UniProtKB/TrEMBL annotation:
Signal peptide from the UniProt entry: 1-24
Transmembrane segments: 239-263
Main location class: membrane
InterPro entries in the cross-refs: BTN3A2-like_Ig-C, Ig-like_dom, Ig-like_dom_sf, Ig-like_fold, Ig_I-set, Ig_sub
Protein name, as recorded: Ig-like domain-containing protein
Organism in which the protein naturally occurs: Anolis carolinensis
Subcellular location(s) per record: Membrane
Classification via SMART domains: IG (SM00409)
PANTHER family registered for this protein in UniProt: IMMUNOGLOBULIN SUPERFAMILY MEMBER 5
Domain of life of the organism encoding this protein: Eukaryota
Amino acid sequence: MDRYYQWTGLILSLLTILSDPGFGASIIEGPQNQTVLAGSEARFNCTVSERWKVLIWLFDGNPQLTLIWNGTSFDSPRFSQQGHTSGTTFTSELTIADVKLTDSGQIKCSIQNDQDNKYAYLSVQVNGSLSIKDNDFTVKENQTIEIVCEALGWAPAPHIFWMENDISLSNSKYITSQSPGSNGLYNGESTLRLTPMTSVNVTCLAAIVALSRPQIATVAVTVYQPEKSGNDYARIRTIILAVVLPIVALLLVILIILLIVCCKRKKESDYQKEIKKNTAETQTTNRNLGTITHSGNENYGYDPEETMYDTVQMRGIVPVSPRNYGLNQDANPRPPSEVIYNRHYGEAFPSRPTAYPVNPRKIRNVTHV
C-alpha cells in the first residue's frame, strides 16, 4: 500500500513539474553523511533554490518521501520532513525514525535534475552488551590474575581497551579477539593479565563511532597481604644465607690473601734492614781496623833470641850475647863501664846499647778494642 502511494505521488509530481515553467531549480546544499545508533533518529537536510517544484528523498534508489512546492507531501511511516524557507531558498529536513541496522545505505536528495543530485550515506551501528565475567577478585599481593571482558552483539566490532584507576593500560598487557555473531553482529573478548600490588579499580571500555562515550564495565580488585608462615621465614632465611655466606667467604679469602702479602712484604723489609745493618757494621769495623793498623809503631828492637838469653840468665850462666858485637867487629868484651850489673845473681852483664840488626823483623802490635 505504501508503494502505491509513493508511486502515485511521484507521477503527480512529475506531471506538475513538466507542465510548470519553473522547471530548472538547483540544489544549493545537499545532505551530509550520518552515523547513528540503532533505535535512534537520523536527520538529513537538503537546501534548494527558488522556483523549485518537486523535491524527492530516495533511499538506495527507492523514493521514500515526495514534497511539492505547495506543501503537499507523500511519505512513508518512518520517513518525515520539516520545511524551512529563508529568503529565496528552501530547506527540507528529512527524519528517519527508529533506524535499524538494515537502514544503512545511500540517501539521495533530488529535484528531478539528473545533473544536480546530492548524495549522503547513513551508517547504523549497534552497541551490544559489555560485561566482566567474574566480579569477585580478592587476591594476594604480587599475585598475577586474568580478567576477562566480553562484548556481545556489536556492529561493527568494538574497540576494547582497559584502564586501571582511570589510567589507560598498555595494549601489551591484554589480548583481544573478535568473531562474527548472528544477524550481522559481532562479538569480542579481551583478557587482561594484571599483577596488582594494592587494591585497584579495573575498567573495561568498548567504543564505536556512534557512541559519544565508550561503554564501560568496572570491577574492584582487592589485594591482601598473606601472613608469613614458618616455612616462609625458613625460606627467607635460606635465601639470605645463600646470598650472604658466599660474600663472607669471598671477603675472608681476600683478607687472608692480603695478610699473607703484608707478612711477606714485612719479612722482606726486615731482611733488607738486617742486611743493611750488617753491611753498615762491617764497614764500621773495617774503618776501625784500618785506623788501628795505621796508628801502631814498629818495634825494630825485638829479637826472638832475647827469649833464649833471658832463659840462660835465669840459670846463672852469663852468655855472651851476639848483640854486644857489631857488624864486622871482633868478639872483644866491652869495658866495665858498659857492663850491666845483675843484682839478682851478683854478676855484671855488659850493657846492651840499642843495636839494630841488618835485616830486622817488623813486628806490629795491634790492640783490639
